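Aim 2, interim progress: modelling of the D-xylitol-5-phosphate-bound target.
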Amino acid sequence: MLDSPLSGSGSVARRQKSTLQTHVNSSAGNALDQLSACVETRGPVVLPALLLCDFGHLAREVERLEEAGAAALHLDVMDGRFVPQLTYGMVVVEAVRRAAKVPLEVHLMIEEPERSIADYAAAGADILTVHLEGLADPARTLEAISSLGPKAHLAISPGTPVERLVPYIDRCDGVLVMSVEPGYGGQRFNPVALEKLAALAELRRSRGGAFRIGVDGGISTETVGPVAAAGAELIVAGSAVIRSQNYARAITELEQLAREAA
Ligand code: DX5
Ligand code: ZN
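Predicted structure of the complex, ligand included:
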C-alpha cells in the first residue's frame, strides 16, 4: 500500500513533499539539466508515455523503458471530466517517481488543475504540464508551478491557436502542442500540430525565448521526422513505443529519425 497524499491528511502530503522535494531538487533536478543538455547537443528526445503500459508491473515497465534509453517519461493524468477517460493520479505518479531515475513530465488533463499542482509537485513531477484551455488564470498557475519547483509547461489542444499561448510564453519553461485530441492513446496524428510547432520555433528564434517545444499524440516513424523538422524537441510517444516488440529499438529508431530531420 502506498503512503499517498490521497490516503489521508494534509500532513501526509506535507511530509511527502519534504522527502520528495529533496529528490526532485537533487538527483532528478540534475537529470532535468541533463535532459536539456541532451536536447541541446544531440537534438530531439523521445519521452515514452506510460498510458498503454502494463500497470500490473509498473516498476518493471519503468525499468524497461529506462534500460531502453528513455531520457524522461511522460505521465498522462486524466480525470474523466476535462477528458472522457479516467487514468490515474498522485498515487501512481508517486510510485513511478520511486521507480524512475529519469525526469517525469506529468501531463495534467484535469479540471481546475490549479487545485492539485502542489500535490503533483510533491508526488515528484519534474515538469508539470497544464492545459491552457483549463486555466482560469494561466499566468498565476505557471508562477505557482515554478514556485513549487517543477518546470512549468503549457499544453494546447488541436483546436487552440498558438496566438493564445503568446501572452504566457515568457512565463513558461516549455509548451506542449497536442497532435491529437487529449484523452486517448493510439489516435491518428493531426497535422495541424506541424504549423503550430513551426510558429513556436519561429517565435522563439525571433524573441530569443528559452522555452522547450514539445509535441504529444500520434507519433510514429512516419510523423516523428516532420514534427522534429518543424521544431519539436520533447517528443512524446505512447503506442509507438509501448506497443512495439522492443522498447529500445523503437526509442532509438524514433530518436534517430527525429535527429536526422531536425
Ligand atoms: C493523449 C495523451 C498522450 C498519449 C500519446 O491524451 O496525452 O500522451 O499517451 O499516445 P500516442 O503516442 O499513442 O498517441
Ligand atoms: Zn500526454
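The longest strand covers residues 73-78. The beta strands are 45-48, 73-78, 104-109, 127-131, 151-156, 174-178, 212-216, 234-237.
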